[in-house]
Write a structure and sequence with these properties.
The complex is a heterodimer. Helices cover 72% and strands 2% of the residues of chain A. Chain A is mainly α. Chain A has one domain (10-161). Chain A has a two-stranded antiparallel sheet. In chain A, strand 1 and strand 2 form a beta hairpin. Chain B has helices at 2-28, 40-45, 88-131. The longest helix of chain B is centred in the C-terminal third of the chain and has 44 residues, at 88-131. Chain B is mainly alpha-helical. Classes of the chains: A mainly alpha, B mainly alpha. The interface between A and B is large, with 54 and 60 residues.
């Protein structure tokens, strides 16, 4: 029983990975804060964390891919297409960023392209990606909020039962045993 | 381990496909001055000395050529060629990103609450009618 308690919760691990990805994204989207040098390297590192995020959720991706045209719910299909759009957008950001980079390419003895197309594409893709990612976070807000509440030990609200508050639920203590992180 | 490598290869392939498509679009883009990606590596492979760098815009590194669409006064990109950051504008960018996330989340939450309320009222109406 003690061993079961100490087993790490995969949802918690997911939350931490997601938090790191979000923090990386916020930093990468603020080049005036980090400076160009850090922005370029952070962008590449963020690409790696993005891959980790995709790998963590691989089973879901594979599952929906298999039944996209058959048994998948509309909600799942919407989520899937949104995630594909985000993946494409981030790939475009990273590739266009590399093509116009100054410091990263210099490290490998290469010079950046003199093509303004990459600069325009990089900025446009960043805007589009920001909105797609915001939608992605918004769609999963319930899962995130429930886990944040658990971590912060916030009390759960009494749930309605047939349109009325249940006194049982209202008075019941909803304290969960402390989880080891 | 083999599964992980397989998944990584799939991710790599997907990313490469997107990159290739983007590069193909760049070749046909009206923004392209006809200059493609070149570097010392390619120059060396072509047998030249590799010292001749691609044409750099006037005014030093990181600045648009004069007469660029974004105005000659504006430096290349929105970073101004600044190696080090820490400006207040940087924090504004972070706040902007968080604001966009907040707006999107608020929108989705509102839509979900509206949908749940609508569904509940339809259910109550159906129950009332069946009860009567």
């Amino acid at each position: 029983m003690m061993n079961e308690r100490r087993k790490s919760n995969p949802n918690l691990a997911n939350l931490w990975v997601d938090a790191v990805v979000l923090a990386g994204m916020l930093a990468a989207f603020a080049p005036n804060l980090t400076g160009l040098l850090l922005h370029e390297w952070l962008g590449l590192a963020f690409g790696v964390t993005l891959w980790v995020h995709v790998l963590v959720h691989w089973q879901w991706i594979a599952g929906i891919t298999r039944k996209f045209f058959t048994r998948a719910s509309w909600n799942a299909r919407f989520n899937y297409l949104l995630n594909v759009a985000i993946f494409i957008a981030f790939s475009v950001i990273i590739f266009s960023g590399v093509m116009e980079s100054r410091f990263v390419l210099q490290t490998f003895g290469l010079a950046a392209s003199n093509n303004r197309f990459w600069e325009v594409l990089h900025r446009l893709a960043a805007e589009v990606t920001l909105w797609f990612t915001a939608l992605h976070i918004a769609v999963h807000w319930r899962w995130m909020w429930s886990w944040i509440k658990k971590l912060l030990r916030l009390p759960r609200r009494a749930r309605r039962v047939d349109g009325q508050f249940s006194p049982l639920l209202e008075t019941a203590r909803v304290e969960e045993p402390a989880e080891r992180v | 381990m083999a599964k992980l490598i397989g998944r990584l290869l799939i991710l790599l392939l997907a990313t490469a496909l997107v990159a290739a498509a983007t590069y193909a679009i760049s070749l046909n883009s009206t923004l392209s001055p006809g200059g493609e990606f070149t570097g010392r590596g390619e120059a060396i492979a072509n047998g030249t000395s590799g010292d001749a760098l691609p044409e750099q815009p006037q005014g030093g590194r990181g600045q648009l050529p004069a007469g660029g669409d974004l105005g000659s006064a504006r430096p290349r990109g929105e970073f101004g060629g600044d190696r080090e950051g820490g400006s207040a504008f940087g924090w504004a960018q972070v706040l902007k990103s968080l604001g966009v996330i907040a707006v999107a989340t608020a929108g989705v939450v509102m839509l979900q609450k509206l949908y749940e309320r609508l569904r509940r009222s339809v259910k109550l109406t159906a129950n009332t009618q069946s009860g009567a």
